[in-house]
Amino acid sequence: MPRIRFLIGLAIALMPALTARVSAEDWPQFRGPNSSGVSTSRGLPTTFSHEDKVLWQATLGDGIGSPVVARGRVFSTAMTGPKKIAVFCHDAATGKEVWKTELDTGILPRITPPNSHASSTPATDGKRVFVYASTIGLLAFDATDGKEVWRLPLPRPAYLMDWGPGCSPIVFRDSVIFCQDDDLSPYVLAVDAATGKQRWRTPRPDVIAGYAIPVLCTAGGRTDLVIAGTGRLKGYDPDTGKERWTCNTLLRTIMTSPVVKDDVIYVAVQSYGDAGRTIKHALLEWLDTNQDGKLSKAEVPREFWDRFDAADKNKDGFLSGDELDTAFQHPSNMAGGGKIIQAVKGGGTGDVTKTHLLWNLTNKAPSDLVSPLVSGTRVFVVKAGGLSSCFDAATGKSLWEKERLRNFGDYYASPVAADGKIFVVGKNGFVIVLEDGPKLKILAHNDMGGEVLATPAIADGRLFIRTREKLYCISNEAK
Amino acid sequence: MTRLAVPLLALLVAGPSILAAGPRIDVVIGPDAPRLERFAARELTDQLRKLFDARVQVSEKVPTSAEHLILLGSPATNPAVKEIAGDRWPKLTDQGHLLRSVSQGDRRALLVGGGSPVATLWAVYELGHHFGIRYLLHGDVMPAEKPALKLDGLDRVLEPTLRLRTWRTVNDFAIGPESWGLAEQKRFLGQLAKLKFNRVMLAFYPWQPFVHYEFKGVKKRTAMLWYGWRYRVDGDTPGRAAFRGAKEFENPDFAGKTTYEEKHKAGVALASGIIDAAHDLGMSAGLAISPLEFPREFAAVLPGAKVLKGLEDLTIGPGPKQPPDDPLLRELAATQVRAYLTTYPKVDALYLTLPEFPDWVEHYEKAWQRLDARTGVAKVVDLKQLMESARKRNLIASGERGFQALRGNIAALDFFHTLLADPALLRRPGGNKVEVVIIEVDPALFPVLDKVLPPRAAALHFVDYTARRVTAHADLLGQVPARSVRSSLIFTLADDNVGVLPQLTTSHLHTLVGRLRQHGWEGFSTRYWIPGDLNPAVHYLSRAAFDARVTPQTAYDDLVTPICGEGVVERLVKAFDKIEEATTLIDQNDIGFTFPVPGVVMKHYRAAGPPPAWWKKVRDLYAGAMDEMYRGQQRSHVGPRPFMLYHAKRLEFAVEYLNSIEALRLAGQAKAKGDRAKQLEHLEKAVESMYNALSALGEVARDNSDRGVIAVLNEYGYRPLKAEFEAVEKAARK
To answer: Which among B391, B417, B440 is the end of a domain?
Structure first.
């Protein structure tokens, strides 16, 4: 009896801690634990479709943010009206809608299709769900009932080319970390997960718009917050936001996220053009409406007019020549385009470019949008056209390169892995299942019936696939 | 409590209007205003609310005081207009309309009216245009900058320079309006009314399910759309997002209809719905039929009938030896005509099409003699000279085809004289006669048109497939006695032979519009299949039809700048010009380049020689136009961005399509050389490019013509390409 009372007491004492944490099988943020794309889940189906092995499905509304899963609940977002965004909570086993909270977005910013105003992936600590909406800011909802816990208004991001926002929060210990690399005033910040109170905010003035998710890398007993951005992979102190190191080997535009395996950070990215193609060239190509080789104020989005004025040194009302070079790209960081896959050893201090770059390939394999997957000892990448490549994680040696997955078209979602399989999702809605091995072996092409841009989630033997309008739970539990 | 309740009550009673921040505008209509003027008042109200967030009050009496006053109608329909306009109301035709600021004492008002109710409706749309609204085929776009509400200082009187502005619909092919359901047809009609089109012509083919008739025990049993071809949609269908889960591409009004009766019922409902919708908008409606063509089941009752040349050979017609005065043939044709008029009793005009590829040639001399006996035509022109001119001319129907065309034309015209001599035939159930319009009279007969057409018939002329080709023979237009025979010209906005790629031809339309005005033609009738590219051309026609000063350049500026803002039109004009140049190149080099039929893509696999140099030029033009669209979009106000993105994606589709067929041609060459590795490489590229082409279009598809293009090119492009690639790959593995 005393022993039972002790155990009950222990259980009660641990309860808050348990409810506030996510379990190993959960998928609490974009691409799951530490954005790795890898789950320990087993028993996942190989063949399925929007009509087969569907445990449940729910119609959400337009969106490209991924679902996240914690403690048997699935959280997702969608546009449910012209100016309404909703956060959904579904029971992971039954699909029952546990709650749905709608928010008014106000006037939405310009974005370029196929982006959506519901592009950000939520994050959760199991107790709360953290959501970013570009016109509102960062919000926290009670995971049990969807009630708003706090909101932190944030400046609206601005994009020279109107791509629109697509960044997602993560949770680290009891902080919510959010990186917003836009073209105007990029930053990373951390807030108290319980209150939304800002803990630190670090500007990132030397980068232009990008969409990399911050990841955590522990090396030498120290954990760094690692963010890929224009030209630079940087490590920050996750408790203070102070920059610890920089590895200056990246490209101009970074839309993929790095992946950490053990104490190594892997980056695979394509940025349009060659090494000399700085942002200026894109601006002259697309913003210079009258093609006179310089930018007038009217040719620049209004949000950037202060920046324009500051850069217009000779005050002639135009940005040209040297003015244009550095008006929107930091003079210390004139990275251009290219295609790279690289492994960087975590840790270090200061400029680690020459000391921590383990290997670096200039290779046509990477995508501009799809993040790499590191599973076991291999780095897997896929790009438009369904071209897949695989490299040895330790050496960068090619295992196969640009092999067809036999599914053409664009790829936006990043591959995920579990149960000895890799799941690759084409924009056309086909999920290609590969054997997670050293040779390319296609196991199945599975049709989800509609466009998919969101990276799937995996938890508890279930695969959660969000099409443009719906959320599917795929499982062998399905009758 | 009381202090709170009063304002609350006032708020409840006043409703949203008191909440509106904008100005109050009073609109006055006549107490007996006709239906169209009441509709015009609703349209005006809607526009004013959108433009100014205005509180619009429509009434039948002039208010004692009004901040902004609009009087809608004409002196004939609105006493308030009569009172204030007095002799300031100009003489207007039934199509003339005006926007005129007037004052009487200290009262100021804007007159918005016309010489008929529909002209008043157009005046409302003209006012919307004045304030910057642009009416595109797929919807309205509001001005980039909110205009000032200024109703004084306006004095605009518009009369048409081309009185008949016809929009053709139904037609054939899945890429055309044959695939549009009634809802989509109505959406287009609504926009066309705003663009002041005043007639819709439903072009029917004998195999379609829009009419039923029986003759001597034979019942019409053929009822199919787009030649009976079917287009499945499955998982491996690039661009499938556009189909929203459908398993087959269909006209939505025919979905699930499998029997003849079901299809016929759906067809009649669709066509009747189009006619009613047109009438509701003040447009007249016509049916275009081919009285000398019948579904094949009628071969049993027409001895000597011949299967006519055409896709899938679906029709029969009189054979070479069938005399034009054969009573049996006349009875069969009359049965068909009567069936249409009985089925569609509200139709205003019946267009009778002369055969495009006439086989009915043996009796032309006798037919000519009969025509001469009726009208004395042979005294004006010599038949032999006519024949020679048809043979020697430079139209698509020239040489033997020209010769044949003219002979068949003469026989058919003689037949029409006899057919239409029956006074009861064209009488509608209400007793009125429909107007008759003859389509495709051979150009050789233009100088004697008044002597070869049946009495009182008008004419709709074809001349050649593309506007560019017609322009090259614009002198022919001057030969038409347009002042004695009401004549319209078919304006090909986009040709089905040139096919599925983006087309524009505004500069040639401009030339033709000038000629029509010069020679006193009545108007035009559009011809197109895919409407997505046509906004620049249709906007030009809409404005030029009422203003001889309008040019393509001024029309483009007028279309783009109010909705996009400054700086955009320059890019878009470059894009439009490049598309027009590409259209011309295709037309000049291979008019059947992307004709949407089986084999349209795979023919390039079998063709000899390397990809022609002009393909690259066309692709570069489309690519350049695409870049310009993106530049324009980047600079533009938000409202019209989707329209520019549509064009950009249509152009991406074109670029990838050209990439695909170029790779296919190279694959064919590699195959001929026995180089299987290269063949596979090029085939894979061809498959992928076609996939990308269709995916790009699928991202922006906004009507069933776009979906039709995707469906057709999946069937005739992507799938056979993929099958060939897989077959060659399999063979290579052995």
So the answer is: B440
Task: Name, in order, each residue with C-beta under 8 angstroms of A476's C-beta and a sequence gap of 6 or more.
Answer: A43, A44, A45, A53, A461
The SS3 call for residue B65 is coil
Name the domain count of chain B. 3
Cα–Cα distances (Å) from B571 to B134, B553, B557, B560, in that order, read 18, 12, 11, 10
> Of B157, B50, B31, nearest to B93 (Cα)?
B157
Angle at A242 between CA A241 and CA A246, to 5 degrees: 115
Which residue is listed with tokens 């009613």? B276
CA of B336, closest CA in chain A: separation in Å?
Answer: 45
> B144 lies in a domain?
yes
Q: Which residues in chain A (371-400) have CB-CB distances under 8 A to chain B?
A: 385
pLDDT recorded at residue B319: 86
Report which of B75, B166, B158, B81 is spatially closest to residue B122, judged by C-alpha positions.
B158
Token pair for A382: 């896929």
Closest C-alpha among A210, A221, A220, A219 to residue A258:
A210
Locate all alpha helices (DSSP H) within A347-477, ordered by sequence: 353-356
Whether residue B582 is contained in a domain is answered as yes
pLDDT at residue B95 above 90? yes
Mean pLDDT calculated for residue range A202-215:
98
pLDDT in tens, A274-286: 999 999 999 999 9
Task: Classify each residue of A446-474 as buried b or exposed e, where b means 16 or more C-beta atoms within 10 Å of its C-beta.
Answer: bbbbbbbbbbbbbbbbbbbbbbbbbbbbb
ipTM summary value: 0.92
Residues B127, B356: Cα–Cα separation, whole Å: 43
Q: Taking CA B124 as the corner, what is the angle to CA B123 and CA B127, rounded to the nearest 5 degrees?
A: 85
Give chain A's domains with CATH numbers: 1-30+65-205 (2.40.128.630), 279-327 (no CATH)
DSSP string over B397-456: S-HHHHHHHHHHHHHHHHHHHHHHT-TTTTB-TTSPBPEEEEE---GGGGGGHHHHSPTT
CATH number for the domain harbouring residue B145: 3.30.379.10
Domain final residue, candidates B158, B192, B221: B158
Q: Which residue in the set B570, B630, B687 is minimally distant from A286, CB to CB?
A: B630
B235 domain residue, yes or no: no
Based on the fold, state whether residues B581 and B728 are members of the same structural domain: yes
Q: With H, G, I as helix, E, B as strand and everything else as coil, classify residue B356.
A: coil
Q: Does the residue B221 lie in any domain?
A: no
Taken in order B247, B248, B253, B257, the sign of the CA dihedral is negative
- Chain B interface residues (partner A, CB cutoff 8 A): 235, 238, 240-241, 245, 566-568, 570-571, 627, 630-632, 634-635, 638, 641, 645, 684, 687-688, 691-692, 695, 699
Of B507, B215, B205, B500, nearest to B355 by C-alpha is B205
Q: For residue A447, list chain B residues with Cβ-Cβ distance below 8 A.
A: 235
Chain centroid offset of residue A278 CA: 23
- Domain of B598 in residue numbering reads as 572-733
User: Are β-strands A338-345 and A264-271 bridged in parallel, bridged antiparallel, or unpaired?
Assistant: antiparallel
Residues A2-37: tens digit of each pLDDT: 444 444 444 443 343 334 466 778 999 999 999 999
- Percent of chain B, pLDDT > 70? 97
Interface test with A, best of B560, B568, B634 (most A CBs within 10 A): B634
Nearest CA to A465 out of A17, A45, A16, A15 is that of A45
Query: Is the pLDDT reported for residue B9 higher than 80?
Result: no
